[in-house]
Amino acid sequence: MTAEFILRIFVAALLGGIIGLEREYRAKEAGFRTHFLVALGSALFMIISAYGFEGALVSDMHRLDVSRIAAQVVTGIGFIGAGTIIFQKNAVRGLTTAAGVWVVAAIGLACGAGMYTLATAASVMVLMGLEAFNYFLHKFDNHSPSRNNEEKMVLNEDEA
């Protein structure tokens, strides 16, 4: 069983790390190390929650709820994500980073539960969403009238 647990945390760290590489490439607040650690830690918490207390309660009168630690991971990651959100100059920054850390925790929990296909599919969807958002943002930004006017003003200032 130990080899299976190691595989679970390895896959979680790998998937979280891949998402973290994308964030690192975009020079965002939380990059490779943060996403790697959040996914690995979430998987480890899930394994501990599901299997770490098997021998603790021997009586049939007691029942373990393996979802309790997973629920606390969600709460804790929400706190970490909130720390990445910044309100600056009437703009909110870091929401995507916070959401990324949150979903990486869910991917880690899925890996910890042995749901590799679900975790991999979620990782692919996260990467697609981040890349699609970036692509459309740049497309929209290049065709924005205010952006074009700003570029013309800069060109006129350079000519003066």
Give a quick summary of the entry.
With 160 residues, the chain is mostly helical. It contains six helices and two strands.
Report what the structure shows.
By secondary structure, this protein is mainly alpha-helical. The chain is built from six helices and two strands, in the order αααββααα. Strands 1-2 form a two-stranded antiparallel sheet. α2 runs parallel beside α4 and α4 packs antiparallel against α5. The longest helix has 27 residues. The chain is elongated. The C terminus is likely disordered.
- Poorly predicted regions are 151-160
Measured between the Cα atoms of the first and last residue, the distance is 73 Å
The chain-level mean pLDDT equals 83
Most strands sheet: 2 strands, antiparallel
Present the secondary structure layout.
Layout lengths: L1 H24 L6 H20 L15 H18 L1 E3 L2 E3 L1 H18 L3 H27 L2 H15 L1
Helix pairs in contact: 1-2, 1-4, 1-5, 2-3, 2-4, 3-4, 4-5
What descriptive keywords fit this protein?
single chain, 160 residues, mainly alpha, two-stranded antiparallel ribbon, 6 helices, disordered C terminus
